[in-house]
Design goal:
The structure is a homodimer of 294-residue chains. Chain A contains 7 helices and 13 strands. Chain A has 294 residues and is an alpha+beta fold. Chain A folds into 2 domains: 154 residues, PUA domain-like (Roll), CATH 2.30.280; 101 residues, no CATH class.
Chain lengths: 294, 294
């Protein structure tokens, strides 16, 4: 057991270390509690979400766009050459970052000087703020081995707009009300113009389970992009890249717990996706989803 | 049929009328297409989401906090006294605004000089930007009649951060890819520290239907606040105000399609909420939810 395991992880901003705080080395990051492990890039475990990650130039497949980071999971990496030498699996720190996504736990991001990016400091390490894990999938990296990838988005304005202040008061039962409630986002359901069309075509019936959620304002369903929008997937916002799903199956689809074969069979079952005339699904997008999320 | 019915509603920003555009009267708003109806406050119908609303001092229960507006639905109002004289129902413009919520369609907000707020213009009308409908419920207004209320939140930074740019390219099938995809938010699942606790206590089993969604990273559930956080509900972030639900039942609960009686019976059924030792639910919060969302 190393020193890093004995200290408890602290999530979120640390009062004494605002964004932009500088650290000379990893021992200082450790002592401050900003990033506990002295070697590992992800501070987290299979049973606990990550509290911090470090970008230190160790992984050839990292992408740093500033507010958006495509971060490579841990494992399979040769520290000498920085190349992947075997497949990464969904364990330890990688599983921790999936928990951040599922539970909406924000993660501190630290950049080191050796990380090749215009956003990294010239020397030492810089604490660069809180990020949200908003997507995770696997891919084949530059060296031909499987890597896990996480798209992180900086929490800024957005979070302060969404965090509610709950009034300090006692309710009629004398319960102390929280002075302030820290609310974070665990999931955002996005929609597009084409999404409305697909829901209408399917009359809000889920293509996987046939559920149609009835509400006082009419039926509800969600449109799921098969090959996701946004970097680096850049799937199109077109009918042949969309499914009409209930929220439960949408979550399972996004998490890769549910995939669909080229012939529309739901993987591992004998059931097929429900279809309606005029809604042709592009098998290439189903394949992309299976290959990166399945 | 009036002139307003013949013109088609246009959603979102209008290129010629940026935020802050000034209009002398409602005829000018109509001619510009910014707000089509000459009398009604909500431009929308039972079958179509609203494209614009107006705050013009007609409703005594409106609240204007600038970026957050608690807007009163239409109907039951005496234009002479501005008082409610009968109950509002979920029809026409009110139903339209619920559709905005369900489908994530943003609505233009116009403020008039007669609207009593520091945010309203001194004369005429001002187009004040796009808002998202993020909550809807009913209440008893100042005059003792039922009113529908909608919490609107201004889309600013947040939306530009969340809107993806999709690269302009042709995919291998020759389909034209959209130059830019307009993505809007239909739903945000928030989470809090207490939420993680409630999911753990229930081992992610839905208290309504018993579903436990299995994913490669472990089980998934959502924590639903019974009396919502945030203005004007100000429910507490405490265990006795939370339920552990699957995404489908969370949606139904938030929409008021699912309510729970004081004795934990699910309204209209003989089934009861599943419970676990140590998770006591406060009946007052269930009552608040029934009274405002049911």
């Amino acid at each position: 057991m190393t020193a890093t395991d004995r200290r408890r992880r602290t999530y979120g901003e640390l009062p004494n270390y605002p964004e932009g705080s500088f650290f000379r080395n990893r021992a200082e990051l450790h002592a401050a509690g900003v990033h506990l492990p002295l070697m590992a890039g992800i501070s987290g475990s299979a049973s606990e979400a990550a509290d911090s990650i470090i970008l230190s130039g160790g992984y050839e497949d990292d992408e740093d766009h500033g507010d958006v980071i495509v971060y490579t999971g841990q494992g399979g990496n040769d520290p000498a050459t920085k190349k992947q030498v075997y497949d990464q699996t969904l364990v330890r720190g990688n599983l921790a970052l999936v928990r951040n996504w599922m539970e909406g736990v924000p993660v501190r991001v630290v950049r080191g000087a050796r990380h090749d990016s215009p956003h990294s400091p010239a020397v030492g390490y810089s604490y660069d703020g809180l990020y949200r894990v908003e997507d995770c999938w696997h891919d084949v990296g530059r060296s031909g081995f499987r890597i896990w990838r996480f798209r992180l988005r900086k929490i800024g304005q957005e979070s302060s707009r969404l965090a509610f202040r709950v009034r300090e008061e006692k309710d009629r039962y004398g319960t102390e009300m929280p002075e302030r409630s820290h609310v974070s986002i665990s999931r955002i359901i996005r929609t597009t113009a084409v999404a409305a069309k697909i829901k209408q075509m399917h009359d809000c019936v889920c293509q996987v389970c046939g559920t149609r959620l009835e509400t006082p304002a009419g039926p509800y369903a969600e449109a799921a992009h098969i090959r996701p929008l946004g970097t680096p997937h850049n799937g199109p916002d077109t009918l042949d890249n969309l499914l009409c799903l209930c929220p439960n199956d949408h979550l399972l689809f996004d998490m890769g717990a549910l995939t669909v074969e080229d012939d529309l069979t739901i993987t591992g079952t004998r059931r097929k996706l429900r279809t309606v005339p005029g809604h042709e699904i592009n098998a290439a997008y189903l394949r992309y989803h299976r290959e990166h999320y399945g």
